Amino acid sequence: MAQLWGGRFTKKTDELVYNFNASITFDRKFYEQDIRGSRAHVSMLAKQGILTREEAAVIDEGLASILRDVREGTLAITEEYEDIHSFVEAVLTERVGEAGKKLHTGRSRNDQVALDMKLYVRDELDETRELLVRLLDAVLTIMKENTHTFMPGFTHLQKAQPVTLAHHLGAYFEMFRRDTERLTDIRRRMNLCPLGAGALAGTTYPLDRAYTAELLGFDGPTRNSMDSVSDRDYVIELLSAFSTVMMHLSRFSEEIILWNSNEYRFVEIDDSYSTGSSIMPQKKNPDIAELVRGKTGRVYGALMSILTTMKGIPLAYNKDMQEDKELTFDAIDTVKGCIALFTGMLCSMRFNKEIMERSACRGFTNATDAADYLVNRGVPFRDAHGIVGRLVLTCIDRGISLDELPMEEYKKESEVFGEDIYEAISLKTCVEKRMTYGAPGPEMMERVIREYEDYMRQNRKTAAEGGHENE
To answer: What is the pLDDT along the chain (471 residues), one digit of tens a residue?
Structure first.
């Protein structure tokens, strides 16, 4: 049992207690962030004269060697250590001697773990945001190719009005765009450095917390030492944003599952993103979409768990907060995996455009336009609504669409109808005349797509510069 404490104790920790208390099995994920924070801390201690330059150089080289050896697999992080902090400090002392024992000057495990968690979350947040940008790219590519691909729009899972595939996917572009912006906003708000807060009340050493924050890429130090070590708002915000990402992916997955069914046949999922049945040779199952939908609950569970953990904790640090890690690590891995797999599935998916258009025609999605035709010729809307409703019933009885209904049937319901009704209710007309901003008309869609392209260019520019929006 390698521990960073014990002088006040006269008995050895019970093994079950030790194992229950230890976090090395999961916080070993922090080794890069822990060493990065320690190297910045040592640089600051040397700058302030708390360590000599020679001591700092020896410690820094020792930390660099630990990082290198763990990365290369020549140094294992074993469970004889209580946590990642004790592992790093113990190995450092073995390698550099007495100087290693000075590493912990001016800090506590409380502000150290708060720093590690922030650095880890920030790194993973950036990677997740990049995955969302790739997903946005994939959605936008499909949109640009399908501004004239007609399909039914739905309400209550009933065919409602004609739209285009570009317009339908544009709704998901908006969702995932909001997701990227939420992550950017969380990153901006969380980007203050807790190191130097100590256990809860700072330290008597003359630390330069602003310098440490600068070395680690933070906007500055946190402003209250008690909040510094007990704040997990950024974890809650991250899991909330991730829950929203998963909700959006799940909605999209549900539609793909429906569209992939024999009844819809709007899409065909590539073989590389499907599986078969062990007993039914004809089956091709949308497993990736179903798993994304299923894993959404897993991320929701992580959010509810941390909210429940934090709700009764008094200031400042309490051991309960150790429970933030495993569930957050799992949620991060789940969300990143789901976004990457969903993007691959979407990019390789084939859209059956003719079937989509035929479904829009047979679903009476142009019925509203038939009513508008009458209104534009002086018929009150309520009367027009009833007239077209009766025409739809006639079509259902005959198994045809409004486009196929003979003119004499139109005339039976209203003499206002003329031959131009067929042009007025064609899918092309129905879509193209919807030209308000945000509607599916092709001219408006082209305008929106240009705006999306500008947004993506700005994202790529920001990423290339190594910066983040709103910082």
So the answer is: 555 545 554 556 566 665 666 679 889 999 999 999 999 999 999 999 999 999 999 999 999 999 999 999 999 999 999 999 999 999 999 999 999 999 999 999 999 999 999 999 999 999 999 999 999 999 999 999 999 999 999 999 999 999 999 999 999 999 999 999 999 999 999 999 999 999 999 999 999 999 999 999 999 999 999 999 999 999 999 999 999 999 999 999 999 999 999 999 999 999 999 887 778 877 789 999 999 999 999 999 999 999 999 999 999 999 999 999 999 999 999 999 999 999 999 999 999 999 999 999 888 999 999 999 999 999 999 999 999 999 999 999 999 999 999 999 999 999 999 999 999 999 999 999 999 999 999 999 999 999 999 999 998 877 777 655 444
Active-site option among 228, 277, 278, 414:
277
**Structural fold of domain 15-105:** Fumarase C; Chain B, domain 1 (1.10.275)
H or E, element range at 351: strand 350-351
Instruction: Provide DSSP, 35-102.
Output: HHHHHHHHHHHHHTTSS-HHHHHHHHHHHHHHHHHHHHTSS---TTBSSHHHHHHHHHHHHHGGGGGG
Q: Is residue 148 annotated as part of the catalytic site, yes or no?
A: no
Domain 110-146+164-202+219-353 has CATH 1.20.200.10: yes
Please give the Cα distance from 19 to 123 (Å, whole number): 29
Please confirm, yes or no, whether 240 is among the known catalytic residues: no
Angle at 262 (CA atoms; ends 256, 268), nearest 5 degrees: 50
Fold (CATH) for 367-425: Ribonucleotide Reductase Protein R1; domain 1 (1.10.40)
Q: Is 158 exposed, middle or buried (0-12, 13-18, 19+ CB in 10 A)?
A: exposed
| Global model pTM greater than 0.85 | yes
Q: Hey, is 417 helix, strand or coil?
A: coil
Of these residues, 156, 225, 359, 401, which one is catalytic? 156
